[in-house]
Amino acid sequence: MSRQMVRPGGRSARVQASVHTAVRELASEVGRDALTVPMIAQRAGVTPSTIYRRWGDLQELLSDVAVERLRPEATPGDHGALPSDLTAWAEQFLDEMSSPAGRAYIRDALLGDPDGGNAGQCSAYAAEQIDVILTRASERGEKGPDVETVIDHVVAPLMYRILFRPDGLDAAYARRLVTAVLDPTGR
Amino acid sequence: MSRQMVRPGGRSARVQASVHTAVRELASEVGRDALTVPMIAQRAGVTPSTIYRRWGDLQELLSDVAVERLRPEATPGDHGALPSDLTAWAEQFLDEMSSPAGRAYIRDALLGDPDGGNAGQCSAYAAEQIDVILTRASERGEKGPDVETVIDHVVAPLMYRILFRPDGLDAAYARRLVTAVLDPTGR
């Protein structure tokens, strides 16, 4: 999390937006590992000390940008039933998070994050999306697990394997996790 | 993984041992964030270029040391039955990995690890320990899940929460995960 509160529309918000944009542009131009604070400051039109004052160091800045990139862009699609909603969401989550860009963002979010707030935010994004899916299911009269159970038995295995044992990860695996969490007796 | 193969007992193995020892000693003396390659080289009695040649950079060296520290020190205890064996292992795993030192090692193992080999090694350690427990259970005639199922539904939720949402993690949570994986119908 950035060290200052951001007042929407104020100078602080404009600085954040221009610095984040500079990081994204430069990362695609020169590669993430070549980024430096002076380079980012110049592109964003701020002084390096503005960046150090606000983010502490490059790692924390990259962590903030990563969390922003990991924010879901839309509410989960409505396919008419819980199994298809959750399956579609899990497949998309795996697809995005296991891509080279997704992996890099997850690592950045975890790393420059001394207080754990950024990693917590990533997990909160997933929990919010799952909550939307489960609430919709409940409104249709469908029974389902709770959010924490889906976190434990769908999100956690996907993220664990992305980080620790990526071999053989595919959409079929995501579908099996969803099937098992919706029908634990069938395992 | 270090870039060169290590010949046990050879100069390469001695360099590795002295550099690893220097990292551990200095980390406890000055703190992990104050470590530099020249400082480590001096303590280990090697040149900085030896370290750069072998490990690439400080991050990769710290990743290597972290994996070594995460290696289990003993085979899992035999408590006479699968539920108690797996529960005791899961409680100890959570305890070690969620400690400040454990968290720091996990982050280091994940970070300075461009090819993912070190993270894979951490996961392989857990899989080996679980395999010992399940094989012992099978030899007693007990039925149980397979290793990958325990990874997905016990190790993954523990590690996911350690990294992304550590609030409220306790031994009771680890025990619930084990109970659920051994009796999926009871959830």
Automatic annotation (TrEMBL), chains A, B:
SUPFAM superfamilies: Homeodomain-like (SSF46689), Tetracyclin repressor-like, C-terminal domain (SSF48498). Keywords: DNA-binding, Transcription, Transcription regulation. InterPro entries: Homeodomain-like_sf, HTH-type_TetR-like_transc_reg, HTH_TetR, Tet_transcr_reg_TetR-rel_C_sf, TetR_C. Pfam families: TetR_C_11, TetR_N. GO terms for molecular function: DNA-binding transcription factor activity; transcription cis-regulatory region binding. Residues 36-55 bind DNA. Residues 13-73 form the HTH tetR-type domain. It comes from the Bacteria. This is AcrR family transcriptional regulator. It comes from Streptomyces murinus. The lineage of its organism: Bacteria, Bacillati, Actinomycetota, Actinomycetes, Kitasatosporales.
